[in-house]
Every structure is written in C-alpha cells, then in structure tokens.
Amino acid sequence: MKPVDLWRKMINAKVYTKEVAERRVNVVFVVGQLSVDEYTELMELIDVKYVNVA
After folding, report:
1. Terminus-to-terminus CA distance in the chain, angstroms?
2. Which of 42, 17, 14 is nearest to 28 (CA)?
3. Which of 1, 7, 8, 40 has its CA 20 to 30 A from that of 20?
4. What is the pLDDT of residue 9?
C-alpha cells in the first residue's frame, strides 16, 4: 500500500485531529513519500472531512 492510500484511509476515518493529520501529512511530504499532487489531494481531503470538527 502506498503512503497516499494509507493516509486517505486514516483521514476518512478521522484517526487523528485535523491539526495532527495536517502535521503528519506535511512530514510525509517533506521526507519525499508524497508527490505534490498527492499532498494537495490529502490536504484538500482533510479540509473536506474536518469541516465541522472543532
């Protein structure tokens, strides 16, 4: 399973808070495990999934 697939599942399941999910996706991107497109997709997914979460 690719990192982007794993992160999609975790974001959809809301395993982490929005802040933690963003921070961890940022780290995965910085270490080179995500492409720019994958990073953008995951950050947009976080915004959609966590829209009503305080």
Report:
1. 31
2. 42
3. 1
4. 97
Distance from C-alpha of 26 to C-alpha of 29, rounded to nearest angstrom: 5
CA distances, 53 to each of 29, 46, 50 (Å) = 24, 11, 5
Give the Cβ contact number of residue 29 at 10 Å: 19
User: What region, left, alpha or beta, does residue 34 occupy, with left being phi > 0 and alpha being psi -120 to 50 degrees?
Assistant: beta
Q: What totals of helices (H) and strands (E) does the chain contain, helices first?
A: 3, 0
Q: Return averaged pLDDT per consecutive 10 residues of the chain, 54 residues in all.
A: 96 96 98 97 96 73
